[in-house]
Design brief:
By secondary structure, the protein is an alpha/beta fold. The protein has two domains: 6-252, Aspartate Aminotransferase, domain 2 (3-Layer(aba) Sandwich), CATH 3.40.640.10; 255-388, Aspartate Aminotransferase, domain 1, CATH 3.90.1150. The chain contains 15 helices and twelve strands. The strands form two sheets. A seven-stranded mixed beta sheet has the order 1-7-6-5-4-2-3, with helices on both faces. Strands 8-9-12-11-10 form a five-stranded mixed beta sheet. Helix 8 links the parallel strand 5 and strand 6. It starts with 5 loop residues before the first helix and ends with a helix. The relative contact order is 0.13.
């Protein structure tokens, strides 16, 4: 049978129907499952049977979500987590041992920086950073104990683009695992496994949910690697709840429609900001002025929902701009139906020092806009009035 299109799989993949033959998958709010007899129970725990045992291990709702994301990403297997950061931590923790080394793009989420710099050193796991736009520097950072090459693309918050194919080539040459955070793009806009990634991580909290309702995360990819992630996670317990898995799976049914609109609105916002006299610079992957525009067009279907720009006037002007916002939300989330403005230097990346933020491409005046699904004229109007009050 010919493979279905992305949008069809997002809607038609669902858990096995019960005796009630429900059209839409129900929520399986149960912690455990019953067995037919002693032998059934023994064989199930011995993994001689492929069946659901306990919701910390798996659940019909999480299994449905995982199957959808695997199909979307072209992955063999996956595991769903309680949040995006639990997916990041558990994936690394499952694959690394004391003495191992990570090479990561310097442009990663603030909490991931904290994980690398404050928590992993407790277990003698070290890291080195490379500039997102200089993959040629990676080779010099590789050690005998290096195990993982890690990056986000597009990056948070600067929406810079990394060459996934180049990273894959480097990883293969040196026997490293390539792990890509694909949160900003979603599997609808980009599939890193096509370019050679071993594992792909998502924060389902963002565009996958799309309405700012629940937390969730997922890692998908190579079956053998996912088995290690699964066995670590079934013991340590970061599993996604059945209700949140159900909600995320339902949200995926509209992912393509929503993301198309997000991208249309974001491009309109980026084009407006690029012409505004109080804006120093604008970055949006599908804006021709973006430094990696050609690469973005190669790797992505569209530019995503996030626009980064710098307000002229530094911190003081940035604070005034935020205080003048009327329609958009001041929040640290992204990927919501509601447009959101964030000041990364004082929120998501505030744990980094000024020098570290500068190395990551985050200036004091940078603003991150997660462009929502409101009418684009209203989004632009609010940004314009706030910028206009800067003088």
């Amino acid at each position: 049978m010919e493979k279905n299109k992305f949008e069809t799989d997002a809607i038609r993949i669902q858990a096995k129907r019960s005796d009630f033959q429900e059209h839409s998958a129900p929520v399986y709010l149960t912690s455990s499952f019953v067995f037919d007899d002693a032998e059934d129970m023994r064989a199930s725990f011995a993994e001689e049977k492929d069946r659901i045992i306990y919701s910390r291990y798996s659940n019909p709702n999480t299994s449905e979500l995982i199957e959808k994301v695997c199909r979307m990403e072209g992955a063999e297997a996956g595991f769903a987590f309680a949040s995006g950061m639990s997916a990041v931590f558990s994936t690394f923790a499952a694959l690394l041992q004391s003495g191992d080394h990570i090479i990561a793009s310097r442009s990663v989420f603030g909490s991931t920086h904290t994980l690398f710099n404050q928590f992993f050193p407790r277990w003698n796991i070290d890291h080195s950073y490379f500039p997102f736009d200089k993959p040629e520097e990676i080779a010099a950072l590789i050690r005998p104990e290096t195990r993982i090459l890690y990056a986000e693309s597009p990056t948070n918050p600067g929406v810079d683009i990394l060459d996934l194919e180049r990273l894959s080539q480097i990883a293969r040459e040196h026997g490293l695992l390539l792990i890509i955070d694909n949160c900003f793009a979603t599997p609808y806009l980009q599939q890193p496994i096509r370019f050679g990634a071993d594992l792909v991580i998502h924060s389902g909290t963002k565009l996958m949910d799309g309405q700012g309702r629940v937390l969730g995360g997922i890692t998908v990819g190579n079956r053998e690697l996912i088995d290690k992630v699964y066995r670590f996670s079934r013991i340590t317990g970061p599993a996604l709840s059945p209700f949140n898995a159900w909600l995320l799976s339902k949200s995926l049914e509209t992912l393509a429609v929503r993301v198309d609109r997000h991208c249309e609105n974001a491009l309109a916002v980026a084009q407006f900001l690029e012409q505004h006299p109080r804006v120093n610079w604008v970055k949006y992957p599908f804006l021709p002025s973006h430094p990696q525009y050609a690469l973005a067009k190669k790797q992505m279907k569209a530019g995503g929902c996030v626009v980064a720009f710098e307000v002229d006037g530094g911190v003081a002007a940035g604070r005034k701009f935020f205080d003048q916002i009327q329609l958009l939300s001041l929040s640290a989330n992204l990927g919501d139906t509601r447009s959101i403005v964030t000041h990364p230097a004082s929120t998501t990346h505030s744990k980094l020092g000024p020098e570290e933020r500068a190395k990551s491409g985050i200036s004091d005046g940078m603003v991150r806009v997660s462009v929502g699904l409101e009418h684009p004229e209203d989004i632009v109007k609010d940004l314009g009035q706030a910028l206009g009050k800067l003088g």
